[in-house]
Amino acid sequence: MRWVVLVILFFGAIINFADKSIIGLAAVPIMEDLDLSYAEWGLVGSAYYWLYPVTGIIGAAYADKIGAKKVLGVIMLVWAVLQFGVLAVAALPLLVVYRILLGAFEGPYSPIAYSHADKWFPPKLRGFANSVIVSGGTVGAMIIAPLLVAMITMLGWKVAFACLGAASVVWAIAFQFLTKETPVKAYEKAKKKKKLEKIRLKDFGKLLVSKAALFTTLAYFSTYILVVWIAVWLPVYLIEVVGMSQGEMGIGVMIIGIASVAIYMSVSSLSDRLFKKNQNWRVSRVYIVGASMIVGALCLASIIIFPNPVWAVVAMCVAKGLTYAILPIGPTIMINELPERGGLMTSILTSSGNIAGILAPMVTGLIINLSGSNEILGYNLSVLFMAVLVFVFAVLFITLVKPTVRQQSDESVESQSAESL
Fold it and tell me: Which structural domains are found in the chain, ordered by start?
């Protein structure tokens, strides 16, 4: 059952990120159809994240209380309604409202998915399990890009959005009928508890500003600026700066997606293997991820120095793969700090990181506009900004994050999980 749960969560992440990324893949036809400027397009990209951080926390908290199946089923059906609603979008205000609502209901997915997977997998496999969910995001955002581009070209951008709505309906049905809420023993234990113990606001506040939680969140925040830039601006960058055609852009995005999945899943697996061997959070989680992010930031900055199209794709493959290592491992660190509130802790991480989504698209759009006719300079400045930010927060992450050491061993948790299955 654990693998069935993981596979379905993987496909949910595909839909989640396809919903996010299709707006970028359809950027050129949408901007032409609705006559949007770069600044207005930055507003469209930013609007998705205006409610995302808040609803991510609320949704994950409810999932901790009433169960992931109920919450994910509801929000996925809402995604479907909103995607079908795109057929009625005819102007910028409606497009912005659509993006705000879609972001609001897609915000809870990632933290709930990470927390839900955490229930089914022992610590030595959680990095891998989370990397599978993250890879679903990369598949949805990049690897199926040629398919999404083909749909946009042949069917029009509105019909392509509606097709993703249909996929959401199929997923919601599959998740409800093919999975269970928790492993048997965990479920029986949960039934004996009337409710979760309340957390004092003062104690929770202290936890959030602890070095482990704060600098893990900041590292995630810096990486998510790159996540948003890739989703909103990379397709336009490859067309207008690198000089690719629409079809070549789709293939380039796919290559970056495939290579980056292999890289960050390898990093996650290495982290898991080291944790199994030494049970050392600093070495296996913090040092491995932090070092990956630093190398990834340097590769990202190299695009400015070597603007060759081939190198741009290669560098983005490495940069995305290595910097994304924080996405699957970060949740394991946060959940470790307060295991009984896994959904809430992960939502704090993802929602705080997604604040970057509010700022990144608009800042990039403004930088390009301020660069006047020299659009390449604007793109390069935005890339340099992201590289420096990731580098700085990765150094702070390595230096200051010291996760809480739990007494329960990896083997004992695995044994309990295996018995429950």
Answer: 2-181+201-409 (1.20.1250.20)
